Amino acid sequence: MFTLPGLIALLVMHYTKVHEMSAWLRPLPVMNLLYLGACFGLLLDIRLGIARPEACPQLRLVLPLWLMTLVSVALTGGPVAHEATLVMVYMLLFLVIAQGVQSFRGLRIVGLSILAISLFLGVVAAIQALNPFQCNLLTVGAYGDITGHPDGRPCESAVECRQDPELGENYVCERPGPLNTMSMAHGRVSYRGILADPNELALSLVIAMPFAMTMFAQYRSLLSLLLLIASFAITLPVVVWSESRTGQVAFVVVVAAYLMQRVRWKDLVAAAVLAAPMLLLGGRSGEEADESAMERLEAWSAGIDMVKSSPLWGVGKSQFMEHHIRTAHNSYMLVAAELGLIGIVLWISILYTSFKIVVLAIRRYRGRPDGTLACAWARALLASLCGIAAGTNFLSLGYHPMVWAFVALSGSYYLAVRRHDPEFRVVFGLRDLLAVTGCVLLYLVGVAGYLKMRGVR
Fold first, then answer.
1. Where would a tag sit more exposed on the chain, N or C end, judged by fewer CB atoms within 10 A?
2. Is the pTM of this model over 0.85?
3. Using CA atoms, how far apart are residues 102 and 412, in angstroms rounded to an integer?
């Protein structure tokens, strides 16, 4: 499979941003070259018959969403060329994964690669959490990301670091970590790039856990057991150290979704035992947490106003913060506000179809001797998608590569199943469209009602 080398390199760079840390890689168009290589690998796989030119169900919705994004930007006077390029990046990532990985072997390689990358990020966060607080000089990188450079001075607050700073330099008191990373908000572990937010870092680890669970469920070997233990041993502390309530919710949802698919009381007990330490130790509380929650509600209220002002095509992609001081902290509200009702229906339809693929597969192959592998991977993807659905309700991830990668894995799973069972089909029809539209309208009305009840509107 010639798609895999370029694809895995793409995932590594998207998650870790290591090319931005290297002095000799930074001037090169690394991401462009990797996308070109991955797309060439996909074309080569199709030419050699390794991959079939068959569209997964979501692809029929992804292209209209991309076009809707361009229409929205054009109608609102935004930079069409710039936004088209940004969206094309995520669309290409989806295309390479969904159409280039058409076998269970390829699915396993990509899934384990994402797990390995996530565990690497978890180790970086763990080292960061165990380091003492130091004065960190903030600098802006070549790609606009802010990094910290510790100067070795111990501290308890940023005031100590600013006693005699050089002109124009800004210091914070945080825990330094490898790769010029540092904590934020006085101790919350974080990374950099697309995972600079502690909530998104925690979510990235949580939604990768089902791959370790599936490997252990399939092989029951010592290696798979060690992988499973490592996954939980790294993910649990990182979620706690990130102080992410979103990470907490996603962890509970993912573990419950994976274990409860067989609905046995032993699985319920196991889920409760695994979630208990994180629920007791993680998350923020007090005035800071209350203030954060109120900021989210105010952003949601602003999103509702944007939908009302332009219900069909929205205010334009990347324009939410032109109308409100903060981002939406809610992917559904963000997409609805920026792309209107048409855009959010398409976006939810893609997520809905991803769920539909794995749910129908579980129903079809559960209990069948010839469907063990298909059922195992469907369970893993369903758990990950449940975590994404929960996390995106509190984070602005509508255009995030991590989300698009997991949605694409559902598409590649569909094509892998079709290779062994051509009669397995999943379609998105009129009834599905009406159901999604109804759910979107109900969600927006429900959020507006909740905001009114809380006195925000």
1. C
2. yes
3. 5
